[in-house]
Design goal:
Blueprint: H1 7-27, E1 37-39, E2 42-44, H2 53-67, H3 70-83, H4 85-88, H5 96-99, H6 101-112, H7 120-139, E3 141-143, E4 149-151, E5 159-161, H8 164-167, H9 169-176, E6 181-183, E7 187-189, H10 191-205, E8 225-228, E9 235-239, H11 251-268, H12 273-276, H13 282-302, H14 341-358, H15 363-376, H16 419-436
Antiparallel strand pairs: 1-2, 3-4, 5-8, 6-7, 8-9
């Protein structure tokens, strides 16, 4: 299979995607908060943190990018101005790369690519938002015993989330725009320094490499959360908020790491050796990122169904009742454990990016990512029901909290969508479409 083979499916996908966006624009009441996930086919909110709004409006911008329909561009611009300013200066979350690079970042990228007209004041507006977003993200900082640190999650300064590796794109763009974080006494802190430190800390503590860290140390296993003692800065234990346990792998957390490390490797390739030298040097930084990317991608491929769709956690308590699920296609309607299509929508892009980054040695990763993407382009994952707000079916949000809807007659959650799954599927679709048409390579960082 090649990206070109999927062009007819991509045409159909963007048609459905546009219809879904238009329906949501007409039917969703933003007075209730940001749309997060669907219940019985209708997007609803969930008061935890406002981390999905950028995906909603970023989807409008991606729809324009893929189709040229200017109505989606105008909606994306207007909604970014109307709703996104609080996200730029939000010091209470670790999600700046999700909200702000998906909106302001995509708009700046389109201007850099010449897909929207050059406008000095509009450019300045996007760049200022991205600078402040990067600094706001970098400010959520916990220093650990080895003198380095991490961007802490909304759970508090003791908490490092796997998710945040994908939000490092906010620091990367802010750095490229020449912006530092200014602290007390006019101390300027490099956003690149904080990016590298966070990525290194995540690689060292959130990921496992089969090197004997604990009794369940399997190469590529990923903890959703890592806990540190704030009194002395020492690592204490793995934990999980949305997965089954600290010693199993929640596959969406795994997916965030796959795509986060893959695209950061691409970003690092644009920097000079002199830029990287103060933070460990190119060999060391690219070395730990490549090690992390390979381990997580290998784990994903080994613990995912034949068609590239994972179940929600590789240690889910009833998963064993499905037998060797890696040798057959995933079954979102089974009686034991839900799949998570959003994890596939996120991971497929990272697999393809890593495959291209590695060249001839990466073909197996690209092929597996493309296979997972192709699976999502068709039923039972692509939603053809015009009354359903969601684009990609069979995702889940927080199974341990019981937030996910279980349809009548079913024993597990299925049939629903989430805003991050829909957005990342659109992002992956644009990525594949550009490869298929030999257009400019899709990247979050600024053109060089």
């Amino acid at each position: 299979m090649t990206p070109q083979d999927l062009l007819p499916k991509l045409d159909a996908f963007w048609q459905i995607s546009g219809e879904k966006i238009t329906t949501l624009q007409k039917e969703y009441d933003h007075a209730k908060g940001s749309p997060v996930f669907t219940i019985q086919g209708k997007y609803t909110t969930r008061g935890w943190t406002e981390w999905t709004q950028g995906f909603e409006f970023g989807s409008e911008i991606l729809q324009f990018d893929a189709t040229g329909d200017s109505s989606f561009l105008e909606a994306g611009k207007a909604n970014t101005v109307k709703y996104m300013a609080p996200h730029v200066s939000h010091f209470g979350v670790h999600d700046h790369g999700f909200n702000n690079v998906s909106t302001y970042g995509n708009l700046l990228r389109l201007m850099n690519e010449g897909k929207i007209p050059e406008n000095e004041w509009e450019r300045n507006f996007y760049e200022l938002a991205l600078k402040l977003s990067g600094a706001s993200q970098a400010r959520r900082w916990t220093q650990i015993a080895n003198g380095e640190g991490y961007i802490y999650s909304f759970n508090g300064p003791q908490s490092l989330f796997a998710d945040t590796i994908r939000s490092l794109r906010s620091l990367a763009v802010g750095y490229q725009l020449g912006h530092p974080l200014m602290e007390e006494g006019d101390k300027a802190i490099s956003l690149l320094d904080r990016l590298v430190q966070h990525a290194r800390t995540t690689a060292n503590y959130t990921l496992f490499y089969g090197e004997g860290r604990d009794a369940f140390d399997i190469r590529g296993r990923t903890a959703h959360e890592s806990i540190f003692n704030l009194n002395d800065g020492n690592y204490r234990c793995p934990n999980s908020q949305q997965g089954f346990s600290p010693f199993t792998t929640w596959t969406r957390g795994l997916a965030w790491c796959i795509t986060g490390y893959a695209e950061e490797l691409e970003f690092l390739a644009t920097l000079s050796d002199d830029e990287l030298a103060p933070y460990g040097g190119r060999a060391e930084i690219e070395g730990f990122m490549k090690k992390a990317a390979l381990a997580t991608c290998d784990f994903y491929m080994a613990h995912t169904s034949k068609d590239g769709i994972p179940y929600w956690d590789t240690g889910a308590p009833n998963l064993h009742k499905l037998g060797d699920y890696t040798q057959v296609n995933a079954d979102p309607y089974n009686d034991y454990e839900p799949v998570d299509s959003s994890a596939a929508a996120i991971a497929c892009q990272g697999l393809m990016r890593l495959g291209r980054y590695l060249g001839a040695d990466g073909q197996k990763y690209f092929d597996f990512g493309l296979k997972a993407f192709n699976t999502l382009l068709q039923e039972p994952y692509l939603s053809n029901d015009p009354s359903h707000h969601g684009l990609i079916l069979h995702s889940n949000y927080h199974l341990p909290n019981g937030w996910d809807y279980i349809p009548e007659g079913s024993k597990i959650a299925n049939g629903e969508s989430c805003m991050w799954g829909d957005y990342h599927m659109r992002e992956a679709a644009l990525y594949v479409q550009r490869l298929a048409k030999n257009e400019s390579y899709l990247k979050f960082y600024l053109n060089k």
